[in-house]
Structure formats: structure tokens, C-alpha cells
Amino acid sequence: MIVGEIDKMKTEVENINTDNSTYLVLEKKYEALIKDVRKYEGELADYNLALDKHRSDTKPDDIEALFMHIKM
């Protein structure tokens, strides 16, 4: 009876350790993906701004100046 409980607890500890390892791997993937999402959101905002400028017939020189400003 006690041996069975000890084995059960060992199995639970192994499962917890496995879950913890999995969590750490997934957390690293999440951090990498959220970094990509933020980068793409920034690029999308830049493209949307450029499109708005194009629609409002902004001069190409003004758009290029804005691009150079954003690039810096």
C-alpha cells in the first residue's frame, strides 16, 4: 500500500517535471512569436500610413522624407 503511494507520487513528480520543461519550451516560443508579431504590426502601421498618404495625393518627396524619418 505504501509502496503503491510512493510509486504514484514519483509518477506525479515526473509528470510535473515534464510539464515544467514543456512550459519553458513553449514560453520561449511565445516570446519569439510575440516579438515577430510586434515587428509585423509596426511594418503594417508603416504601410498603412504610406497608403493613406498615397490616397490623399501627398507629394512623393514628402513620402520619401517620411520614409527616411521612420527608417532612422
| H/I helix tally | 2
Rg calculated over all Cα atoms: 26 Å
Number of strands: 0
Biggest β-sheet: count, sense, barrel? none
Euclidean distance between termini CA atoms: 70 Å
Our count of domains comes out at 1
Structural class: mainly alpha
Which regions contain 5 or more consecutive residues with pLDDT less than 50? Answer: none
Morphology call: rod-shaped
Mean pLDDT: 90
Q: β content, as a range?
A: under 5%
Helix content: over 70%
User: In sequence order, what are the helices and strands, one letter per element?
Assistant: HH
Descriptive keywords:
72 residues, rod-shaped, 2 helices, mainly alpha
What does this structure look like?
92% of the residues lie in helices and 0% in strands. The longest helix is centred in the middle third of the chain and has 54 residues, at 2-55. It has helices at residues 2-55, 60-71. It has 2 helices and no strands. It has one domain (2-71). The mean pLDDT is 90. The relative contact order is 0.06. By secondary structure, it is mainly alpha-helical.
Brief rundown of the structure:
With 72 residues, the protein is an all-alpha fold. Helix content is 92%, strand content 0%.
Give the helices and strands, then pairings:
Blueprint: H1 2-55, H2 60-71
